[in-house]
Amino acid sequence: MRIPYYPGCTLKTTAKNFEDSAIAALKVLNVELVELKRWNCCGTVYSLASDDLMHKLAPVRNLIRVREEDGSKVLTLCSMCYNTLKQANLFFREDKEASEKMNEFMYRERDYEGDVEVLHILGFLRDEIGFDQIAKKVKRKLAGLKVAPYYGCLLLRPGEAAIDDPENPSVFEDLFESLGVQTVDFPYRNECCGAYQTVDQVDLVAERTRKMINLARSIGANILATSCPLCQFNLETRQKDVKGKWTDFEEMPVVYFTQILGAALGVGREDLGFELNLFNPSELIYGE
Amino acid sequence: MQELIDKVAELSGQNLYGCYQCGKCSGGCPSVWQMDILPNEVIRLVQTKRVDDALNSKTIWICASCFTCTVRCPRGIDLAKIMEALRQIHLRRNVDHIDIKKVAQGEINELPPIALVGNFRKQTA
């Protein structure tokens, strides 16, 4: 299966390990990501002000790119890109007056009809591949792992953009179960990590990180998995700030779920980009 | 003052008077421990014509639009959009909330692009 793919800026830079591991894991599942020939920044945060059409153009332009290549679906990996494209698409479909105005403004583009479906890889694996099918392709038993699945905000909220129940999601747990990987029931799994505040309010994000990692540790987890490059950065890199203040703090690796998925499906560790992880989890994952 | 209240209602698209102050937004807010006023107090200030107090609060900048309150409000009010409306009123006076020059250079090199774009989108004019 080939599917149009929108990477977004962070998957080409600090989260290259997310892209690499997703491509490698999907290859085992016979899915090829076809990166859009042209794409631009999604805007990162969906604009919430009712009159702000300008900041909804960037995500919509990416959906026009999908149509230009005759696609009807687009797959995202980054939770933030997913949410921004998804919400802009929903807005475009619902507000006729605004969508006409936006098409008019982008007069050099072909008109967009709101007819692209925005998918996140987790929903895609669940709905279009099937966890039962994934279970059949598991090659490696990852017995040493006890994963705290971390959803963050943007896969689940607001409700209309959610890939699962916003308050009681299960897609991560179900996926790991199909891989034979143990998870813990992580109470902070859908709490905000502090997001972009990591730029100017390091202490705030570090305190969140301390709270989350300590709780994950206390309930038996030894690794945290996510699908958001900002959560991954915050919860892993800010552990350095935590350690500076709390010397008895015990660090924990924070990985992209695709790195665990890839390992379980038999992908070699050299293809999963572990060198970009601050705390290299490859020994923990591969059990050597 | 009425003009400001109308602006909050227009930018957020929310019925500000639908809130009956149950406090569920504040109860579930993961950032509340950093805020100077509670999320439900932000709405109350707008309802009672004290928009300036809401605009001058730390709270509207601590909110990172995680939408926890949005999915839980029993009155269906999207408080994240009210917070955004207040931030927008501030930023549209052409005043940045953060000074980009003060972000440490070492940090900038390390931060993911989504952190920087998200932060500057939310906090600069």
Q: What is the topological layout?
A:
The complex is a heterodimer of chains A (288) and B (125).
Chain A: E1 2-6, H1 16-28, E2 32-35, H2 57-68, E3 73-76, H3 79-94, H4 96-105, E4 117-120, H5 121-129, H6 131-136, E5 146-149, H7 171-178, E6 182-183, H8 202-218, E7 223-226, H9 229-245, E8 254-256, H10 257-264, H11 282-286
Parallel strand pairs in A: 1-2, 1-3, 3-4, 5-6, 5-7, 7-8
Chain B: H1 2-12, H2 24-28, H3 39-47, H4 51-55, H5 59-62, H6 68-72, H7 79-91, H8 105-110, H9 113-123
Helix pairs in contact in B: 1-7
Describe this structure as you would to a colleague.
The complex is a heterodimer of chains A (288) and B (125). Chain A has two domains: 2-122, Up-down Bundle (Glutathione S-transferase Yfyf (Class Pi), Chain A, domain 2), CATH 1.20.1050.140; 140-268 and 275-286, Rossmann fold, CATH 3.40.50. Chain A is α/β, with parallel strands linked by helices and 288 residues long. Chain A has eleven helices and eight strands. A four-stranded parallel beta sheet of chain A has the order 2-1-3-4, with helices on both faces. In chain A, strand 5 (146-149), helix 7 (171-178) and strand 6 form a beta-alpha-beta unit. Chain B has one domain (2-93): Alpha-helical ferredoxin (Fumarate Reductase Iron-sulfur Protein, Chain B, domain 2, Orthogonal Bundle), CATH 1.10.1060. The chains are: A alpha/beta (288), B mainly alpha (125). The A-B interface holds A 8-10, 13-15, 41, 43-45, 47-52, 55, 78, 80, 153, 156-159, 166-167, 191-192, 194-200, 202, 204, 208, 229-230, 233, 237 and B 10-13, 30-31, 34, 62, 64-68, 70-72, 78, 80-81, 84-85, 88, 98, 102-103, 107, 110-119, 121-123.
